[in-house]
Amino acid sequence: MANEAPHFALIAGELSGDILGAALIRALRQRYPQARFSGLTGPRMLAEGCESVGSIEALSLMGIAEVLPAIPRLMRLRAALVERYARERPEVLIGIDAPDFNLGLERRLRERGLKTVHMVSPSVWAWREGRVHGIAKSVDLMLCLFPFEPAFYAKHSVRAAYVGHPLADQLDDTLSPAAGRAALGLPERPTLAVLPGSRGGEVGRLAVPYAQAAARLAVEFPDLQFVTPVAKPSLRPLMEAALREHAPGLRWTLLDGQSRHAMQAADAVLLASGTATLECLLLGRAMVAGYRVAPFTAWLLRRLVKIHHASLPNLLCERPVVTECLQEDCTPENLVAALRPLLVDPAARNAQTAAFSAVRQELKRDAGMLAAQAISDLLGN
User: Fold this and answer.
1) Which CATH class is domain 177-363?
2) In what order do the strands lie in the sheet with 225-230?
3) Which of 14, 31, 79, 357 lies 20 to 30 Å from 54, alpha-carbon distance?
4) Is the pTM above the cut of 0.85?
5) What is the DSSP letter of 13?
């Protein structure tokens, strides 16, 4: 690379994108010690020395009902990023997740002669397969986290590399729930971790049925305690209000973040269907996934989605290992029925975690290193 201080631009969406971006920065810096990094960042990317031109919070939206009002703001942000990076000319622009935003950004900058990479394949294999044609015009390289994805892109002549998942390299599944509770200073008693999501819309739709399910479980299991990691301060009032109204008097600890610690402390986990389910799998904890979206989003998804499972563990295990309680099925009754065996039967927990172990081994490939190698190959270094 002719430039002694190469510039890599990374545009991350969501808290999970911050994790991936930080791992990629570390690996790229090993290859390019003098490199400069800039982009939309979260706290982990900032800690790795990435210059922030905006926060990942700008892209932390879920569902049509949330995205539509934000479209003018997102268009202004994308135009500003196009103008900035067309002027600064980084060696490569790397979009991390947030495909509806990043693929458009990547396409515009690729048209201006920049190399573009996208990390985390959109679920084109699940719905809206026609998007692959736009992807082919937007990216020089797709970095895939899951093993079944590159074959799909090969059919459409899109350069893709399977790198595994950075979380599989980072997370430890050997810590016992008792050790996890000790690390958080929680009493030694049966524990359910309750994770209603990292977005306001998720917590707004899930906190109440989750709290109602917990209240019913507490009647059946008087020793049961609950722990919830609150992803960001703005979500705490939503969770506190749900607990006051629907689960008063329960042994319930709210943490500031620390989602992994909360899952490690748990005998079982109730969580939103998303990246947290993959973290839970990699930590070796049995789970139930519950999810609700806005009614119009649900109506649309039912007509477009081609896959039979919503959670990543079931997709990766290729069978329904984890119970999914989705939309109108996400009721306190159904959640309790799914959680009960995980709380009382070690065999039920082991049936899940044994399947998770094989997935963990497949995903553990030093993803940051493989991604940095694929980018280096793209740049001809």
Assistant:
1) alpha beta
2) 252-256, 225-230, 191-195, 268-272, 287-291, 323-326
3) 31
4) no
5) -
